[in-house]
Structures are given as C-alpha cells and as structure tokens.
Design goal:
alpha+beta; 5-stranded antiparallel beta sheet; two-stranded antiparallel ribbon; 14 helices; globular; DNA-binding
DNA sequence: ACCCAGGCATTGG
DNA sequence: CCAATGCATGGG
C-alpha cells in the first residue's frame, strides 16, 4: 500500500460524485468506502486517507495512473486563486465546492467508448447501456470489472452490442473505431486543435466527443465542451438568468474563463448537480 | 402514452 | 452553408 498525497483541501466524496451520480459504474465500484478499479490487468483499491488516498497494491505504474484518475494534473490552487479574484458567480461556486478535484479518464479507449454511449441520451440511460456493455465484454475481477478492451470489441458482432441497448448506428461506430488504425496514444503530444481534428475525422466522433476527450482524458486546461447540453444549461442558468443559449454563445462565453475553461466547466456542471 | 436527455451522420434544400 | 430527420433507452 502507498499513500498518494493530494494537495489539500481534498474532498474524496465530492470529487468522485460523478462516478455514482447517474447509476452504478461497473468499472468503478465502491466497497467499504473505497474505490475499486482494474488498471493494467490488476484490481486496485483507492481509499480516502489523511492528506490524500491510500492505493494498493504498491506499484509505481498503478500509482501513476491513480494520480491521473484522481485529477492530480489539475493545478487547483492556481484555479481557486484565479476564481476568487474573478466573477462573483464562479467565485461563490468554487468556494462552496471546496475540495472538488475533477477525476480524469486515464484510458483513451474507455473515454471514447464512454462518450459514444452518452451521445444524445440521458446519462442515466448511458450508464445503464454502458453497464451492459461492460458485463458482456469486460472481465469481472474481485469487485470491479475491467473495461472491455479495444481488441475484444474489434472482435464483437454488432448485434451483440445492439442487444445491450446501443442503437445500430452507435454499434457501428464502436466496432469501426475498435477496428480502425487510429492510434489513441499518439494523440497525447498533439495540440488541442490537432486532437480535435483527428477525433472528428472518425465517423461517430464529433466536436462534443473531441472536447470531452481533451477535457477528461488529456486534462487540457482550455478544453470547453460548449456543445454539451448540461454545460449550456448550467451557463444559461448561472449567467443568463435561464435564457436559452446556443453552442456558439456558450463557446464565446468560455473565453472569459481562460486559462481555466476545463476546471470551470467541471465546477459549473457539479454546481448544477449539488445544490 | 408521451417528451426529453451531457450527439451525430445523413439527406435535401 | 443550414434545417429536418432517425436513432434506442431510462426517467418523469
């Protein structure tokens, strides 16, 4: 076991709320207050502890991935300081949600598949559908499921995926992506715009999916999913008294949150869920 | 029974 | 370039 230090304040419950808010996540399960996940073929346990979390088993690779999962790449101190001096709406939200460090998605494949499941439908439906995909194509360890691998889904038949609630179109996107020659790890060194271009070149992956990939997998500070329905609603309610806003309007409003668009988006979304 | 939900591609102007 | 349409499920 190893203690992973996290800059304080850190609220483990609040930070992991997204894993539970819309239903059970089979790849991210809870057992006796700890988060269980399969990383690099082994089930790991992350438990809140003094000054951070305890991670087991002890392994430098696992600890490195746990750091990403817990959002350690974000510079929260700089964000909080910036927000406190900025507009009063965001300042109040950041003060109220003190200790919230948005989790990231360490695995690019899982990030994209998760986005496909969440396109257009409610997140409650998306969680249910994703859960059936994990049960059918993933591997159960002690408490948590290993997320279905790209190789496994490349070998799947579309009707097996449709049986879990995917639309036929989305099942097509999924197996086509799995079988494509897109190298997901090769996206890491690219600029935001290059990543956006590479992702949207794939059928089934659009601007929304690219923006969330930048935000939640790559943790890019400027990522701002302006097309996201929940973010548009949050911005509308918090900044425009509920007046409906187009994606373009929300995109332009993101400029005022530079260079912290990504963290701002996460805080605005959480503020909408935690009254 | 309806309608909406953290999109996207396709088709037709 | 923009509007209209279909998609499958879960919750209200």
């Amino acid at each position: 076991m190893a203690r992973v230090e996290i800059p304080q304040p850190y609220d483990f419950e609040l930070s992991t709320e997204r894993f539970r808010a819309f239903g059970p996540d089979l790849a991210c399960r809870w057992h006796e207050g700890a988060l269980h996940r399969v990383i690099r073929g082994r089930e790991i346990r992350i438990a809140p502890a003094e000054g951070g979390v305890d991670v087991e088993p002890h392994d430098p690779w696992i600890e490195a991935e746990a750091r990403v999962l817990l959002g350690l790449p974000f510079d929260l101190d700089a964000f909080a300081g910036w927000a406190a001096r900025g507009d009063p709406v965001l300042a109040a939200i950041v003060a109220r949600l003190r200790g919230f460090r948005p989790p990231l998605q360490p695995d690019p494949w899982e990030a994209l598949v998760t986005s496909i499941t969440a396109q257009q439908v409610s997140l409650h439906a998306a969680f249910a559908i994703r859960g059936r995909l994990v049960e059918r194509f993933g591997v159960l360890h002690e408490h948590a499921w290993a997320f279905p691998t790209r190789e496994r889904l490349a070998a799947a038949r579309e009707d097996e995926i449709v049986a879990g609630g995917f639309s036929r179109r989305k099942a097509e996107y999924l197996v086509d992506l799995a079988r494509s020659d897109l190298d997901l790890d090769a996206l890491t060194p690219l600029s935001d715009d290059e990543v956006r271009e590479a992702i949207t070149a794939v059928r089934g992956l659009g601007e929304w999916t690219a923006d969330w990939f930048l935000a939640r997998h790559l943790g890019r500070p400027h990522a701002w999913p302006a097309g996201d329905l929940a973010l548009r609603k949050a911005v509308s309610v918090l900044y425009r008294d509920g007046e409906a806003l187009t994606t373009e309007e929300v995109r332009r409003m993101g400029e005022r949150f530079a260079p912290f668009q990504n963290l701002t988006a996460h805080y605005l979304l959480l503020a909408g869920r935690v009254p």
